[in-house]
Amino acid sequence: MKLDDYLSPEELKRLASALLVVLGFISIAAFFGFTVVPGLRYQAHTTPDAPIQAVQGETGWLDPTDYPAMAREILPPIDPATVMTPNPKLMARGEALYAQTCATCHGADGKGNGPGGTGLTPKPRDFAVKAGWKNGTRLEDIYRTLDEGIKGSSMASYNYLSKKDRMALAHVVQSLGTFDHGASDPKAIASLEKLFASAGEVIPNRIPVARAVAILCREYAEAKPPAPASTIR
Ligand code: HEC
Question: What is the pLDDT of residue 225?
């Protein structure tokens, strides 16, 4: 039984060319399915110049306001007189720090309406409103907030800043909330004064989180031992 018994040479030729066209389509589809589409998807994930998106609720983590790189500092004890009450130098320092570090969430004038704060739950505190403060509005309360952060919220601890910087910020926060902050507890103020006067501090080297992640990834790739021979086979 031969193929020629069933098909004339012309029909055979037509069949072969139809088969060729079908195979052509299949290979084009396979090319798109296995190469082009995954390639596009990969590119969409790794566009190198895409702006870094802030991740909600995780300050500093791939955040556009990532910590700036700073060299290690050794700071002497502070004279409490220079930080317990506002003075122009301290306020200027605090305002610059506020604009750089806090305004993204709390807004330039502390109304809790910064671009980084939209969509956060709970919302960044509106410093112009007295109600709802969790730690309180007294100097020692705000210092504590900056020292420890507020658990369960995006308000992180800022204890990577020096004590003096945290005090400067506490005064700035008070200046943005011009309502009565209540009387400070003399004991709390005395213990803050003692803390400032008693010991200097060492602020370690700091690099942006994004850079730290890049370095860790590189070091891991370099340190990763080659796969044992048995798994290569
Ligand atoms: C990532 C956003 C974010 C940044 C940046 C941020 N905060 Fe906050 N902050 C919050 C949120 C959210 C709350 C509200 C927390 C809550 O209600 O539990 C808050 C609350 C506060 C409070 C009120 C605490 C209380 O007693 O209720 C103070 C004071 C404060 N922040 C100061 C600062 C200062 C100063 C900076 C800059 C060093 C700063 N924050 C940076 C999000 C932020």
Answer: 72
